[in-house]
Structures are given as structure tokens and as C-alpha cells.
Write a structure and sequence with these properties.
The protein is α/β, with parallel strands linked by helices and 267 residues long. It contains 11 helices and 8 strands. The strands form 2 sheets. It has a 6-stranded mixed sheet, sandwiched between helices. α4 packs across α5 and α5 packs across α6. It is globular and about 45 Å long.
Length: 267
């Protein structure tokens, strides 16, 4: 089992459990995450979700060892977002990172320890609020591998931090620590190392104290419409086939151990 679900009263704690690969997402994990959040959405008693990290990593992105074996090319070639897709909740297939194309009606809080990078940063951006622990880092690390942002990163990052800051992060792939993340609005709460899950859980329970109908209606109204989101995500998906040109080579470099841990010099 690569995804765990825990109940804490009206809060659901959903976590990736692949610590040996820093919670990188492979196809099976993407499907499991998608299913877990769809289950959360459908469960009447569940009001808020905490998307939790392990103690050492939130998510290091898509499992590039999987990409290196050619699976991603085949998957991308087979997927075609329907032109009449107007409702984000109607998208019937998990994205490469899982739930990234869904717009849920209930809040999701990300609890970030360690790296939330590449596709992991896209999952963090998908969350409605982000709690970031000391020692955590975000960044578009897939820049070095020739892997495009295809899980909502190009859509949600500019809306979260503004176009200028988004340009900086998307073009450079540089790391962002919790202090800077708070300053630019990429993180909403900051906490001590090892306390992200506890802090996020307390925040989640705070949200459950309010009348949920009004809370969800206001939250939905503040977000882009499902049609706008669908249009933006469809546009983002268009260059996904670049992955076949550049990403497989970059994934092979990753699998061989080159360029890890933020080192761009040996790519």
C-alpha cells in the first residue's frame, strides 16, 4: 500500500507512504491518491483533509525511474483531454501526480516536511492551504530534467504567488525555503521541523468548527470556475508531449544519479 488514510473525527489524513523514494509518485500511487481524495469528497462525515508528508519528505515529484523506462511517454500519448471537459470534477483519470486536476468542494491542507519539489510542489499547490516546516523546500526541480509541469503547476503557481515570482521559479528551478515561501504566499503557516502534520491537523479541526455549507460556498466562489480551470489545465497539457523529446533523457540521467539534491552542474 503506497497511500494511507486515517480518520481523526471529521478530518481525514491522506499520506503517500513511499519513504525509500522520498514519496515520489509512480502510476499506482497516482491512482491511489486520486481514489483517496475522491473517497474523501464523497464521504459526508469528512469535512477537511490533511495531505500529510512523511517525516523526511512531502513528495519528491514523479518517480523518474518510471519515466526512464518509457511508461510516461506511452501514458501521455494515450491521454486526450476531451474538448467538452467543462467541469474539473468530471475528469475521469488521475493525472501523473494523482488528484491534481480535481477541484474538490472541501478544503485540503498540505503538511510539508522536507522536499515538495517538481510534481510534489504541484501537489502542494493543489492544496488549499500549506503548512511548511523548517528544513522543508519547494522548487520546480524538474526544470533540470526536461520534464514539464503538467499537474497544474503553471496554472496554480502564478495565481498563488503572482506572475513575476512564478516566472522566477518556473524558469530557474531554484529552491524556496520556508521563510521565503511565507513571504511570497507559497506557504500559509510555518512551524518547527517535525510539526507540519500536527500543525495542519490543528488547523483542519479549526475549520470544522464553522458552518460547512457557507464555508465551502465562499471558498468555491473565491476560486476559478471549473470551466476556467479546465481550460487552463487543457492548455497546460498541450506541451506534455515535450516529455517524449527531453524528459526521457533527463529521467535517465536522474536514474543514473546525476543532478540530484539540487546540483545542476553535472546534468
Amino acid at each position: 500500500m503506497t497511500v494511507t488514510i486515517e480518520a481523526d473525527g471529521p478530518v481525514r489524513i491522506i499520506a503517500i507512504d513511499r519513504p525509500k523514494v522520498r514519496n515520489a509518485v509512480d502510476p499506482a500511487t497516482a491512482e491511489a491518491l486520486y481514489g483517496a481524495f475522491m473517497e474523501f469528497e464523497a464521504e459526508e462525515a469528512a469535512q477537511v483533509a490533511v495531505f500529510a508528508s512523511g517525516p523526511d519528505a512531502f513528495c519528491a515529484g514523479f518517480d523518474l525511474k518510471t519515466a526512464a523506462d518509457g511508461w510516461a511517454n506511452d501514458w501521455i500519448a494515450a491521454v486526450d483531454i476531451p474538448h467538452d471537459w467543462a467541469d474539473a470534477m468530471a475528469w475521469p483519470l488521475a493525472g501523473p501526480m494523482g488528484p491534481s486536476r480535481l477541484m474538490l468542494s472541501k478544503p485540503v491542507i498540505g503538511a510539508i516536511e522536507g522536499p515538495a519539489v517538481a510534481g510534489g510542489m504541484e501537489l502542494a499547490l493543489w492544496c488549499d492551504l500549506r503548512v511548511m516546516a523548517e528544513g522543508a523546500v519547494m522548487g520546480v526541480y524538474c526544470r533540470r530534467w526536461g520534464v514539464p509541469l503538467i499537474d497544474g503547476g503553471t496554472v496554480r503557481l502564478p495565481r498563488t504567488v503572482g506572475q513575476g515570482r512564478a516566472n522566477d521559479l518556473i524558469l530557474t528551478g531554484r529552491p524556496v525555503d520556508p521563510v521565503e515561501a511565507m513571504a511570497m504566499g507559497l506557504a500559509d503557516r510555518r512551524c518547527e521541523k517535525g510539526q507540519a502534520r500536527t500543525t495542519a491537523l490543528a488547523l483542519a479541526h479549526d475549520l470544522t468548527r464553522f458552518p460547512q455549507g457557507c464555508l465551502r460556498a465562499d471558498h468555491l466562489s473565491a476560486r476559478p470556475t471549473p470551466t476556467d480551470l479546465a481550460t487552463a489545465l487543457r492548455r497546460e497539457w498541450t506541451p506534455a508531449r515535450l516529455f517524449g523529446d527531453e524528459g526521457r533523457t533527463g529521467a535517465a540521467h536522474f536514474a543514473s544519479g546525476r543532478g540530484r539534491s539540487g546540483d545542476f552542474g553535472d546534468i
